[in-house]
UniProtKB/TrEMBL annotation:
InterPro entries: KaiC-like_dom (IPR014774), KaiC_dom (IPR010624), P-loop_NTPase (IPR027417). Residues 5-247 form the KaiC domain. It comes from Methanomethylovorans hollandica (strain DSM 15978 / NBRC 107637 / DMS1). The keyword Acyltransferase does not apply. PROSITE patterns: KAIC (PS51146). Gene3D superfamilies: P-loop containing nucleotide triphosphate hydrolases. The keyword Nucleotide-binding applies. Pfam families: ATPase. This is RecA-superfamily ATPase possibly involved in signal transduction. The lineage of its organism: Archaea, Methanobacteriati, Methanobacteriota, Stenosarchaea group, Methanomicrobia. Keywords: ATP-binding, Nucleotide-binding.
Length: 359
């Protein structure tokens, strides 16, 4: 089975910590308060696709196409060259968005089936829809349909405004879109001084190994967002703990672990994406499987020695019985005695019975 192809977002640094990009036909939600750069993320995402031969659809619920293109130019993205050729806009407001979701977008998806060119989509922002529909069930239903429809075109990036209360990680008003999306990143403004006063965190990323740190980012005109990250795992660290995993697999095997459990450890080995040692994780996992303390070397050695002692004792016992047989019966009668015993004609339980028989 071949590995799934990842589609780069074009957000510099972000792809390094999400296995190279997003999966096709999935949704990525960008959540943040005003001034965190959500629209810049959206423009950069679209520009990357257009520059690499894709089409793009920009769904706006606030600004018209002309204003979006003007703001893009200010950031160094020349989207004008693609306008109404590879780049298309939908501009809708409030309740009109429901008609867009129910009628216009499904028709667009149907028409697009005849074309092989991939289309990446942006919804910037989703906030007016959330504000316009107060009923949570209705809101969930329309967001579900919106995401399902647009994912048929290609990967989708959605931005939404957040209003978190003190102590909240994310605002309650964005919980439904976060839940319905395949991936979500959170942008925050932290006025701590210096160039890096904004930070990105990955809330979720389905079927993806992703970084779990807080990543500062800056805006560079002509490039866009630059996220300050290191790769999820470097080339040097990729196989750094193979010996430890192999030792754990051997230990589990020596202690009678099932094939499925050994396969799970092998899978963890293949997908370990952290720079720190997996020893503690393996110990906890072993304990959860009823192999308490099984990763300790002395336990493994003790069990091996016990097994070896039993084998050696059995060998010594066999040699002793052979010597007794030769001594009491005699070499010339051994074969006869063995034959009698093997045929089950004589049943001797005590040594004195054997002596009496020989006399």
């Amino acid at each position: 089975m071949s590995e799934e192809v990842r589609i780069p977002t074009g957000i510099l640094g972000l792809d390094r910590v999400i296995e190279g990009g997003v999966r096709d036909n999935t949704t990525l939600l960008v959540v943040g308060s005003s001034g965190t750069g959500k629209s810049t993320f959206a423009m950069q995402y679209l520009a990357y696709g257009l520059e690499h031969g894709e089409n793009a659809l920009y769904v706006s619920m606030e600004e018209p196409a002309e204003q979006i293109l003007r703001e893009a130019r200010m950031l160094g993205f020349n989207l004008d060259r693609y306008y109404n050729k590879e780049l298309f806009f939908f501009h809708s407001k409030g309740k009109d968005f429901v008609k867009l979701v129910d009628e216009q977008l499904p028709a667009l998806v149907e028409a697009n089936k005849d074309y092989a060119v991939k289309t990446r989509v942006v919804i910037d922002p989703l906030t007016p829809l959330i504000w316009a529909i107060q009923d949570k069930q209705e809101q969930r239903d329309i967001i579900t349909k919106l995401f399902y429809t647009l994912k048929q075109l290609g990967p989708v990036l959605i931005t939404t405004e957040e209003h978190a209360s003190p102590g909240e990680t994310v605002g309650e008003d964005v919980l439904i879109p976060i839940y319905m999306s395949d991936g979500a990143v959170h942008l925050s403004y932290r006025p701590i001084g210096g160039a890096f006063n904004r930070a990105l965190e990955i809330i979720k990323m389905r079927a993806t190994r992703h970084g779990e740190e807080v990543y500062p980012y800056i805006f560079v005109r002509g490039i866009g967002v630059v996220v300050r990250t290191t790769p999820l795992i470097s080339a040097e660290d990729a196989n750094k703990y193979d010996d430890l995993f192999d030792k754990a697999i051997r230990t589990a095997g020596d202690l009678g672990a099932s094939e499925s459990l050994l396969e799970r450890i092998e899978y963890v080995k293949k997908n370990w994406a952290y720079s720190f040692s997996p020893k503690e994780t393996l110990q906890i996992f072993f304990e959860s499987q009823g192999l308490t303390g099984s990763i300790r070397k002395e336990d493994v050695e003790r069990r091996k020695q016990e097994a070896q002692h039993i084998a050696e004792h059995a060998s010594e016992q066999s040699a002793f019985l052979a010597d007794v047989e030769k001594t009491l019966v005699g070499p010339e009668q051994t074969s006869c005695f063995t034959k009698q015993k093997s045929e089950g004609l004589i049943d001797i339980e005590e040594l004195k019975e054997l002596e009496q028989l020989v006399k």
